[in-house]
Design goal:
Blueprint lengths: L2 H14 L5 H10 L6 H11 L1 E5 L5 E5 L10 H7 E4 L9 E6 L4 H12 L3 E6 L3 E6 L2 H14 L2
Antiparallel strand pairs: 1-2, 3-4, 4-6, 5-6
């Protein structure tokens, strides 16, 4: 199967099922005759901009974000995805810590780098948080204010 066909299948499965984990996604793909590694599915998820969104019962499921989107068109996604932003802390003026809905940190990292890359020294992510190191305390303050606007 070609990559574009695999990505289309992945999109269709995500749209038609409530999937909470990559393992569940791999099982559904195997039922379609496609056997992938976890690394491949992870890369595909990132390429498609797949995010986790909350359900009414408190779980998080995979869903598709808007293709080829920018920060302006991702306002709703960002607003619902960033749970909290750290306050300015003495000694850590160049750093911001963000709590993110699990599974969405890579997408938020990409949006931040696309929009504010010139102010960012580095970003470290795990499944549900993001540590942003700005190039200067002033850049960190500007980023904090912008992010707070995103989440209002």
């Amino acid at each position: 199967m070609k990559k574009c066909e695999r990505l289309e299948l992945l999109q269709r499965i995500i749209l038609n099922h409530h999937i909470e984990t990559q393992h569940e996604l791999l099982v559904l793909l195997e039922k379609e005759g496609l056997h992938l590694t976890q690394a491949t599915i992870s890369r595909d998820i990132n390429e498609l901009g797949v995010v986790k969104t909350p359900t009414k019962d408190g779980h998080y499921v995979y869903s598709l974000s808007q293709p080829n989107s920018t920060v302006d068109s991702d306002d709703f996604l960002v607003e619902k995805t960033i749970l909290s932003i750290s306050e300015k802390t003495s000694g850590l003026e160049q750093m911001l810590h963000l709590d993110i809905i699990p599974g969405n940190t890579r997408l938020i990292k990409k949006i931040l780098l696309d929009e504010y890359g010139e102010k960012i020294f580095s970003i470290i992510v795990d499944d549900d948080s993001l540590l942003l190191m700005a190039k200067s305390p002033l850049a960190a303050d500007q980023l904090r204010q912008e992010l707070l606007e995103w989440t209002r």
